Amino acid sequence: MTQEPPVIVLVRGDITRQHVDAIVNAANSSLLGGGGVDGAIHRRGGPEILAECRALRASHYGKGLPTGQAVATTAGRLDARHVIHTVGPVWQATGSDPSLLASCYRESLRVADELGARTVAFPAISTGVYAWPMEDAARIAVETVRGTETAVEEVRFVLFDDQAYAAFAAHT
Questions:
Q1: pLDDT (tens digit per residue) in 3-30
Q2: Is 36 left (phi over 0), alpha (psi -120 to 50) or beta?
Q3: Annotated catalytic residue 161
Q4: Model-level pTM?
Q5: How are beta strands 154-159 and 82-87 bridged, if at all?
Q6: CA–CA dist 38, 72 (Å, integer)
Q7: Most buried of 13, 51, 67, 129 (most Cβ within 10 A)?
Q8: Cα(25)–Cα(39) distance, rounded to whole angstroms?
Q9: What is the DSSP code string of the chain?
């Protein structure tokens, strides 16, 4: 029996303020924090997130988390149970691989299913310092979520500004 795709909700706001089962972090491969969404999640979530990320680096991900993959940690002080870290691809005018961006969403949903998460908040992965064009990133994100079999009931795209919100709204 095929499951219904999750309900897609768009929110203009701060992903660190979302009350959901899991928040997806647009992480860098080191898993040790950074700027943008990654830095905000680590700052608000507290040292528990970084401690679990360090443990992952010491065990399974000594060379870092590969692009397109996902792994979960505690959410620390966030209003969520888990943070799912995924590494988006860097946009390049030639040679950018949209399947890697799609993989971030698919793999995050797979991890969410393993965790039993029913509500998941995503940022617009790879659209910040990784410079993926917003319109293309929104299309890939929405199509991938709609096309991925998952037990997640609600996917919330939490978008930082009006441009991102408009791009995602055009595809929902």
A1: 788 999 999 999 999 999 999 999 999 9
A2: left
A3: no
A4: 0.95
A5: unpaired
A6: 14
A7: 67
A8: 9
A9: -PPPPPEEEEEES-GGG--SSEEEEEE-TT-S--SHHHHHHHHHH-HHHHHHHHHHHHHT-TT-PPTT-EEEEE-TTSSSSEEEEEEPPPP-TTT--HHHHHHHHHHHHHHHHHHT-SEEEE--TT-STT---HHHHHHHHHHHHHHS--S--EEEEEESSHHHHHHHHTT-
